[in-house]
């Protein structure tokens, strides 16, 4: 029945596209969605996730709310205006009412229950701050071997987007990101903003999606505030669907070309807080390579066929 998948998310416009990509893919068994603070507060990310699933007619998918704030230090960021005050360009209320009640358990409990019950390893796709995933790995060591891969949208090999050094998801909870990426407990694939930016789509792509039917039109209607932000960030009429790029890899392993690098997450309170420091030196130059596998080594997505990726996402969303 295809890829067993759980998405951890902070919708967010690009999160909405990513959730829809999974929800509308017949080769994905979407076991559940968990929510986290991030682009907007937890109450809004949870409402938005539930409504996007209702848009996709997926009342079968349970949703549980998770962390309202980072593990250790307060989240210094108010709402991310790239996504609008409600997280979906002010259009959350235009989406259908949720088709099921919010789960009575928290996100980490739902993640653990779904993983324990799975008859084969599950792909977990965090596309917001990594707080819930760090808590899961810490509190439930018994489920580590039920996780096939953690496919993460986050980090940056070059400059950041929230600060000069840091990408938003890692910046929002650097300690959580260090716990997930640096623990060596589960196979991680990091999809950094360097690649997601290169996968940006233009208004022609959005127009094709909008014309494909009611779901495509509803997704396109979520983009105005996001488009305003990315016109400034890109310098042309387009948007970066960061999270959909990560979900494309979760759904179609290998659609992104990857390399493996040691990664450290900067958790000090300086100008580089939240930076993902990726050691791209040749292995022969890295001090710690006496043949032993480096526990900080992470698979990093570095390239893809941009047109194929855009066509894959559009094809799935447009049905
Ligand atoms: O930096 C991009 C990431 O931050 C995406 O997940 C987007 O939704 C925002 O959360
Ligand atoms: Ca996100």
Alpha carbon gyration radius: 18 Å
Given as residue ranges, the uncertain stretches (5+ residues, pLDDT < 50) are: none
Helix content: 25-40%
Tally of discrete structural domains: 1
Q: List the secondary-structure elements in sequence, H or E.
A: EHEHEHEHEHHEHEHHHEHEEEH
Q: What strand order characterises the main sheet?
A: 3-2-1-4-5-6-11-9-10
Mean pLDDT: 95
Describe this structure in words.
The protein is an alpha/beta fold and 319 residues long. It has one domain (3-318): Ribonucleoside hydrolase-like (Inosine-uridine Nucleoside N-ribohydrolase, Chain A, Alpha-Beta Complex), CATH 3.90.245.10. 36% of the residues lie in helices and 18% in strands. The protein has 12 helices and 11 strands. It has helices at 13-23, 42-55, 107-117, 131-139, 168-172, 174-182, 193-198, 203-210, 214-220, 224-234, 242-251, 306-318; strands at 3-9, 28-35, 63-65, 122-126, 147-153, 188-191, 201-202, 238-239, 256-265, 276-278, 297-304. The strands form 2 sheets. Strands 3-2-1-4-5-6-11-9-10 form a 9-stranded mixed β-sheet, with helices on both faces. A two-stranded antiparallel ribbon has the order 7-8. Strand 2, helix 2 (42-55) and strand 3 form a beta-alpha-beta unit. The longest helix has 14 residues, at 42-55. The model has no long low-confidence stretch (mean pLDDT 95). Calcium ion is lined by residues 10, 12, 15, 38-39, 127-128, 243.
């Amino acid at each position: 029945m295809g890829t067993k998948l759980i998405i951890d998310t902070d919708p967010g416009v690009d999160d909405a596209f990513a959730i829809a990509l999974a929800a509308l893919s017949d080769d994905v068994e979407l076991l559940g969605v968990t929510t986290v603070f991030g682009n907007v507060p937890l109450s809004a990310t949870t409402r938005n996730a539930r409504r996007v699933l209702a848009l996709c007619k997926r009342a079968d998918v349970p949703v549980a709310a998770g962390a309202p704030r980072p593990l250790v230090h307060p989240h210094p960021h108010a709402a991310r205006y790239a996504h609008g005050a409600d997280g979906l360009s002010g259009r959350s209320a235009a989406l259908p009412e949720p088709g099921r009640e919010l789960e009575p358990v928290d996100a980490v409990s739902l993640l653990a229950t779904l993983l324990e019950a799975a008859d084969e390893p599950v792909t977990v796709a965090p596309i917001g701050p990594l707080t819930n995933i760090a808590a899961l790995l810490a509190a439930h060591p018994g489920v580590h071997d039920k996780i096939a891969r953690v496919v993460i949208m986050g980090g940056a090999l070059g400059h950041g987007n929230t600060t000069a050094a840091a990408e938003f998801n890692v910046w929002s909870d650097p300690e959580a990101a260090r716990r997930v990426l640096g623990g060596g407990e589960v196979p991680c694939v990091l999809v950094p903003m360097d690649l997601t930016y290169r996968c940006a789509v233009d208004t022609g792509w959005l127009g094709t999606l909008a014309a494909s039917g009611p779901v495509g039109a509803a997704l396109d209607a979520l983009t105005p505030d996001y488009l305003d932000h990315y016109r400034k960030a890109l310098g042309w009429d387009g948007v970066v669907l960061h999270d959909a790029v990560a979900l494309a890899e979760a759904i179609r392993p290998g659609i992104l070309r990857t390399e493996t690098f040691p990664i450290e997450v900067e958790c000090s309170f300086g100008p580089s807080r939240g930076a993902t420091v990726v050691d791209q030196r040749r292995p022969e130059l890295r001090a710690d390579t006496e043949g032993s596998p480096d526990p900080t080594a992470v698979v990093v997505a570095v390239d893809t066929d941009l047109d194929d990726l855009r066509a894959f996402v559009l094809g799935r969303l447009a049905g």
